[in-house]
Design brief:
The chain has 27 helices and 15 strands. By secondary structure, the protein is α/β, with parallel strands linked by helices. It has a 6-stranded parallel beta sheet with strand order 12-11-10-13-14-15, with helices on both faces. A 5-stranded parallel beta sheet has the order 5-4-6-7-8. Strands 1-2 form a two-stranded antiparallel ribbon. It binds FE(4)-NI(1)-S(5) cluster.
Length: about 650
């Protein structure tokens, strides 16, 4: 297949050509070579016990496993297990962060500090912890312990459910899907879907919603909040995105994976003067730290560290021949990079006992010695610089795109009214007036079975053209960043008139980078704030908002999609349906869920149809809310309150000293 059909990113295309010339097989090639099993792909393969695996082919009401399991039950169980796995991934990430917060609070992890005390106090408030008379560390300890309790508590419900609008909480209660504890919901889902337990598809899917809510309003939300407390709440920051952020004259160190705490230490170590001198002694000008996947998003939104992109860039990064070391932790790390690294001088370094890899060096991360370990890794990368082979160096030769990232709930609130009067009023008013047609969360992975970034980029462009405000996370955000869509100027040229005016007035680009995939929780709290601000109903359900993951591949994406639907946001996934085998499942997710949680979950592969459905869902929500009918091109002549230049002059100092 031609490179242009594999990716729309010119840098990726260029590296794919290098791979082809060198006869290096990548995931793009393997996706062509390995056709997915059609039965498993649609959710019709049951391998819950050793009487099978059973392939449930044939008519929906006739297909059956050896035990008698029906097709809807098998499909629902497979889906529910994906939700449980995704929830486990995000939540285990949060657990590690909660332990780090506890260690910091107790003075046992001296390299970290509580960077955002304001956020700590706000979070303490959500958790019902009285901060009066307590030192910062005492509050942090209480918060960390409360968070850890959320995993295994035997009574009650997750504390963060209280952050959802009252109406939503009532819906969850009525359906019996309010999660009790994170671990419990994951364990229960595994139990219910094992051989011979839950035999009713609708009930299994209710369980899946409950487990997913333990992710969205549990693990993911905690992950976001603890990261903000420890490492700082994001605010706009400038950076660059491309496979060409590697520097030929520097030691290139890639940090890839998901958890931010070691990455924070690597940021410090990569700027260490002694290590810089050491790099110079080896013939390099310094150390160039670059991010990949969601770790990239974490250090991008807080420090402006450039990103080499998302999931499908990891092999291509190594193929540039310029990566001295790739440090990985958990999730979305392709096993293929171990073998690939042997063809180059690149060292792959694993950092957690949970995720080891053949052909990698293992340096176990421990927050109690974070900086020392980070320095060890940087030193290792520097030592590897002289091993770089000139003949292997293949830059993509595509200028990295400029970008602005770092829009948090707190910042969006702030920019609509300042530090003490922050609100969502201007945004709500703009939606009510029809300047903004609706809001879309564009998120999720890349998948080598789909031309890389093609759907993300198409949808981002078309949505803003249709006056839809786009918020992005994960690899979807990387796609827009690389395409140069995350600058106010670029995107404003393409946005519809109404949206453009609002963006100029409050000083935001029409495509907002909200962070990593756990930061999808920011979208939940923003949606709650919009609902509570007034004028757009009193629930997340019913808002003119849609979530889309057009190129998904991970179980985590399924957990995210499910918690959004269960929270009232309709969801559309591209890249094929894991429940396609069962019409009953399709009916449950597209129709019954509307009656239960006021949102549906759709699978649609055609990007044009995804766009159409998104706009239809938004317009229907507007109609039901009885707000002004959206009319394209209605706005565009009125006075601009504060243009982008003025807003910039008001300035925000980024951690790297640039003004945004
Ligand atoms: Ni999300 Fe982030 Fe990317 Fe997909 Fe993987 S990196 S957690 S799962 S591939 S968006």
């Amino acid at each position: 297949m031609r490179e242009e059909l594999k990716s729309v990113d010119p840098a990726a295309q260029s590296l794919l050509k290098v791979a082809a010339q060198k006869k290096i097989e990548t995931s793009f090639d393997r996706a062509e070579r390995l056709k997915p099993c059609p039965i498993g792909h649609q959710g019709a393969c049951c391998k819950m016990c050793h009487m099978g695996p059973c392939r449930l082919v044939g008519k929906e009401d006739e297909a059956m496993g050896v035990c008698g399991a029906s097709l809807p039950v098998v499909t629902a169980r497979n889906f529910a297990r994906m939700v449980a796995a995704g929830t486990a991934a995000h939540s285990d990430h949060a657990r590690d962060l909660a332990n780090t917060l506890l260690a910091v609070a107790r003075g046992e992890a001296k390299d970290f500090q509580i960077k955002d005390v304001r956020k700590l106090n706000r979070v303490a408030g959500y958790l019902g912890i009285n901060v009066e008379g307590k030192s910062v560390n005492e509050t942090a300890e209480k918060v960390a312990l409360k968070f850890l309790e959320q995993f295994g508590q035997q009574r009650g419900e997750l504390a963060y459910l209280g952050r959802a609008p009252k109406k939503r909480q009532e819906i969850w209660k009525k359906l019996g899907i309010a999660p009790r504890a994170i671990d419990r919901e994951v364990v229960e889902m595994m139990h219910r879907t094992t051989m011979g337990v839950d035999q009713e598809a609708n009930n299994i899917m209710l369980g899946a919603m409950r487990a997913s809510l333990a992710d969205g309003w549990g693990g993911s939300m905690m992950g976001t909040d603890i990261s903000d407390i420890l490492f700082g709440t994001p605010k706009p920051v400038k950076s660059k995105a491309s496979l060409d952020v590697f520097k030929e004259d520097h030691v290139n160190l890639v940090v890839h994976g998901h958890e931010p705490s070691f990455a924070e230490m690597l940021v410090v170590a990569s700027e260490d003067k002694e290590l810089e001198a050491y790099a110079k002694s080896k013939g390099a000008k310094g150390v160039n730290l670059v991010g990949m996947c969601c770790t990239a998003n974490e250090i991008l939104v807080r420090h402006g560290i450039p990103t080499a992109g998302g999931f499908l860039q990891q092999e291509l990064g190594i193929i540039t021949g310029m990566v001295e070391a790739m440090v990985v932790d958990v999730q979305c790390i392709m096993p293929a990079i171990g073998e690939l690294s042997k063809k180059y001088h690149t060292k792959v370094i694993t950092t957690t006992n949970k995720g080891k890899m053949k052909d990698a060096i293992h340096i176990e991360y421990d927050e109690h010695h974070g900086l020392d370990l980070a320095k060890k890794v940087v030193r290792l990368a520097i030592d590897n610089f002289p091993n770089r082979k000139k003949e292997d160096v293949s830059p993509a030769n595509v200028k990295p795109a400029d970008m602005i990232a770092g829009f948090s709930h707190e910042y969006i609130e702030y920019m609509q009214g300042g530090l003490y009067r922050g609100s969502f009023r201007p945004l709500n008013d703009a939606i009510i007036a029809g300047r903004i047609r609706g809001v879309v969360g564009l998120a999720g992975c890349n998948n080598p079975r789909i031309c890389q970034d093609s759907m993300h980029n198409f949808l981002a462009r078309e949505l803003i053209k249709n006056d839809v405000l786009v918020v992005q996370t994960g690899c979807s955000a990387h796609a827009s960043a690389k395409a140069g869509y995350m600058t106010p100027e670029m995107a404003l040229e393409n946005a519809g008139k109404g949206l453009r005016e609002v963006c100029e007035a409050i000083g935001i680009p029409p495509i907002l980078h909200l962070g990593s995939c756990v930061d999808n929780s920011r979208i939940l709290t923003i949606a709650s704030a919009i609902a509570e601000e007034g004028g757009l109903g009193d629930d997340i359900g019913g808002l003119p908002a849609v979530g889309i993951a057009p190129e998904w591949m991970s179980e985590k994406a399924i957990a995210i999609g499910t918690y959004f639907a269960a929270s009232g946001v309709p969801i559309i996934f591209g890249a094929g349906s894991p429940v396609a085998a069962s019409k009953t499942l399709k009916d449950i997710m597209e129709n019954k869920w509307w009656d239960m949680v006021t949102a549906g979950f759709y699978f649609e592969e055609d990007p044009g149809k995804i766009l159409e459905l998104t706009l239809k869902l938004i317009d229907t929500a507007r109609e039901k809310l009885k707000i002004r009918k959206y009319e394209p091109g209605r706005f565009g002549t009125e006075r601009v309150l504060m243009d982008m230049a003025a807003r910039r002059a008001a300035s925000f100092a980024t951690p790297h000293g640039e003004n945004v």
